[in-house]
Design the sequence.
């Protein structure tokens, strides 16, 4: 286990909610080699822990995540990236499994955006299912400013969330999308004052944690499938999922609760 001074990702469990907190506030939670390893372990743990029904990803200090640690990339070193091949391998072997887990784990994932989400940090926020942000937050794809192309799945996520025109402008200009504009476009679900952000996220996460687990997992599978399907294919997959849910104890209990409430009225 890493020494306490190297704890760059903190994991806390509050009831059925698992909090994953990037913890490099002095670097605006930039992601370096140690952070990648710890974040990968944290996301994997959250996915596998049956007691965790909702996952929250957030940052310490004034940023959600300022992206990859460019200084470390330039220097190389332990886990650093000295060659173009190193960059590609880190994306494929380290970032990709984490981002896929966030999108596909059978439980809701909330991004509590306490500040800017930049580069790969934006990829993490956009890979979550729900985004709650402070007005000071923004999303920035600044790859063009250092001569790189978008990565971390953002070329797939951002056009679907904000539209291709917005995505192209961000990719070409290297200018940020404000939290206000992101909320207007539906990229961010809610805007919350900084001093109320975690309380609001806790309330939402607690509500989701009390919802039927399998039904939420099925809804997430349905949406992910539909993003790559025709309307007819989406209808068929929904039928398959609904058939499975209709045979579940969740459905039987839900119907019984509904009927008992009607009788009481």
Sequence:
């Amino acid at each position: 286990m890493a020494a306490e001074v190297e704890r760059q990702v903190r994991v806390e469990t509050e009831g059925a909610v698992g909090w994953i907190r990037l913890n490099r506030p002095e670097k605006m939670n930039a992601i370096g080699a140690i952070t990648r390893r710890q974040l990968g372990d944290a996301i994997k743990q959250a996915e596998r822990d049956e007691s965790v029904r909702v996952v929250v990803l957030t940052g310490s200090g004034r940023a959600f995540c300022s992206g990859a640690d460019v200084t470390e990339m330039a220097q190389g070193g332990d886990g650093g990236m000295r060659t173009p091949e190193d960059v590609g391998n880190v994306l494929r072997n380290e970032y990709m499994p984490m981002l896929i887990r966030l999108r596909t784990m059978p439980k809701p994932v909330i991004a509590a955006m306490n500040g800017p989400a930049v580069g790969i940090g934006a990829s993490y926020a956009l890979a979550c299912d729900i985004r709650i942000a402070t007005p000071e937050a923004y999303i920035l794809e600044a790859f063009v400013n250092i001569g790189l192309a978008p990565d971390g799945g953002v070329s797939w996520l951002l056009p679907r969330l904000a539209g291709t025109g917005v995505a192209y402008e961000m990719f070409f200009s290297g200018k940020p999308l404000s939290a206000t504009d992101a909320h207007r476009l539906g990229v961010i679900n809610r805007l919350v004052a900084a001093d109320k952000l975690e309380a609001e996220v806790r309330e939402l996460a607690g509500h989701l944690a009390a919802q039927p687990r399998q039904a939420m997992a099925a809804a997430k599978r349905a949406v992910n499938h539909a993003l790559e399907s025709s309307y007819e294919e989406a209808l068929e997959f929904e039928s398959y999922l609904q058939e499975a849910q209709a045979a579940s104890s969740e459905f039987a209990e839900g119907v019984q609760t509904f009927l008992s409430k009607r009788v009481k009225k």
About this structure: Residues 84-104 form the longest helix (21 residues). DSSP finds eleven helices and nine strands in the chain. The longest strand covers residues 9-14.
